[in-house]
């Protein structure tokens, strides 16, 4: 190394190498999620990591994106999310295919750290998008799929997680009707989650409009009818014919579909102050929170205007799960059993093949190692068993210090590994 | 009453925060018993005592469910938390100040869009303030005793918090502009606000009752 130069061999800020068992867990959870998505007929797509910068319009996402220039001096960015690239893909590649398109993905996305407080520059998202339908049944369907996915991974609502559901058009519709002069100011304050500012702006409004400060505070379980009852008051009178009433009907329909689709209502909490983190949300909008984690595990919603930019005015709805955050709240699982088979003989190779064909995962070390060394190795790769070839099967011991070796017949190995 | 974990700031608004929580029926007496502790467990609530600028960090990450912190800190950090209630206490002003004998000179430099050096503990607030005026400044970030900077020539002016104005007077600094006013706020973690909505709203109602009663 030359004197005075520091060679950068670490990973770049916000990125990391992911090693076993974490990497195994990540891929395993990802596979199970995609399997669940397939059960609902969603088909996976893969888009390029790089997109032209014009593709992403949302200011916060553009700001958070890594940018670079191609040889033609065009600005590119590393995709900061998947919803917009899928919108682009649908309008370009699936233009003549019948709708709705039900697409899924599980891919890494990239954001500059420190922008919007993100700690990771690269993280994994798995999600679905339904493009080409305005039906609240599709909103309810994706919400139900999200809840089912979380439950299939061992989370229980409301003990472990809750899905918070809002309707971006309700408050906005009410404001446009009742107090249009302060509407954008109030929406900005609410997007910043600043209810104090909402109160301050509302206090200056002279017309009788209690909903200005009350609607953002309507929060409660979806099973509790009083939240929607209170909301209904603000969709009557002057606001009756407007978007607010339609938004509330839409929310009621979604809840009815959710109820019919398998009683997912226990997992849902209504929050009419939730309007979504991105400007592109136009209707139902939701976030999943898990006990013990201060951040959202998943979020989604309806975005009926996003595809218009790409020349196809198709309505759409979908969600994204943040895999690293999800895994941090999943119940711990025992790693699947692995046997380290030690021995450099032909017999050992034959035995390894035989065991694998009967369903035993085998890591074969073609060397003659002492038991202590072999157990140490097995622990380092998180194998649970160590074995040596023996005349009628193998000598098998649990991979722990002082584990006792016992002769086990080949056909009984799987049973012992799983016991 | 709640079982919530509350982040309480040390320093200027500590007593105001305790009074608000006390009024809401939280067992804050434990916090007065032993001033050196950082974490207190009491019947029905837990308390973290930390620097004001760390309160939003604990709350944003969910290590505390709710917290009390000045608006000045929220303006500076812009954390992703729910801002629920203005407690009306801990009133102070974010000000632009300069030494008396150079005040006019600094004012003139700013109005001519010259670059002035401003020392501050609130660099983002200072940057946004000068940008909103269409003026330019070199921001020098310090972590304490900001009023020292113009006295020794580190900067021409300061952007800092003033509650009583005593520190300004002692150092012969005069206020050139008031940037904003700040009061103590009750903030909540986004998840706790929903997952523990019953407890958080009970706390809000109790604080509301005690502020208005």
Q: What is CATH's topology name of the largest domain in chain B?
A: D-Maltodextrin-Binding Protein, domain 2
Strand content of chain A: 15-25%
Total E-strand runs of chain A: 17
Q: How many helices of chain B?
A: 10
CATH-scheme architecture of the largest domain in chain A: 2-Layer Sandwich
Question: What's the gyration radius of chain A in Å?
Answer: 27 Å
Q: Write the CATH homologous superfamily of the largest domain in chain A.
A: Bira Bifunctional Protein, Domain 2
Counting copies of identical and different chains, the oligomeric state is heterodimer
Distance between the termini of chain B: 19 Å
CATH class of the largest domain in chain B: Alpha Beta
- Radius of gyration of chain B (Å): 19 Å
Describe this structure in words.
The complex is a heterodimer of chains A (419) and B (213). Chain A folds into two domains: 22-329, Bira Bifunctional Protein, Domain 2 (BirA Bifunctional Protein, domain 2); 339-418, Rossmann fold, CATH 3.40.50. Chain A has 14 helices and 17 strands. Chain A is of the alpha+beta class and 419 residues long. The two termini of chain A are 53 Å apart. Chain A has helices at residues 22-39, 59-64, 83-93, 136-152, 168-178, 183-191, 195-203, 211-214, 226-233, 243-260, 323-329, 346-357, 371-380, 413-418; strands spanning 43-44, 50-52, 67-69, 75-78, 101-110, 122-131, 161-167, 219-221, 268-271, 284-290, 296-302, 316-322, 339-342, 362-365, 385-390, 393-398, 406-408. With 213 residues, chain B is an alpha/beta fold. Chain B folds into two domains: 4-90 and 183-212, 3-Layer(aba) Sandwich (D-Maltodextrin-Binding Protein, domain 2); 92-180, 3-Layer(aba) Sandwich (D-Maltodextrin-Binding Protein, domain 2). Chain B contains ten helices and eleven strands. Chain B has helices at residues 14-23, 29-33, 55-60, 71-77, 103-111, 123-133, 148-151, 166-170, 190-195, 197-212; strands at residues 4-9, 39-42, 45-50, 66-70, 82-86, 92-99, 116-120, 137-141, 157-162, 173-182, 184-188. Chain B has a six-stranded mixed beta sheet with strand order 2-3-1-4-11-5. A five-stranded mixed beta sheet of chain B has the order 8-7-9-6-10. The radius of gyration of chain B is 19 Å and the shape is elongated. The two termini of chain B are 19 Å apart. The chains are: A alpha+beta (419), B alpha/beta (213). Chains A and B meet through helix 7 and strand 10 of A and strand 5 and helix 9 of B.
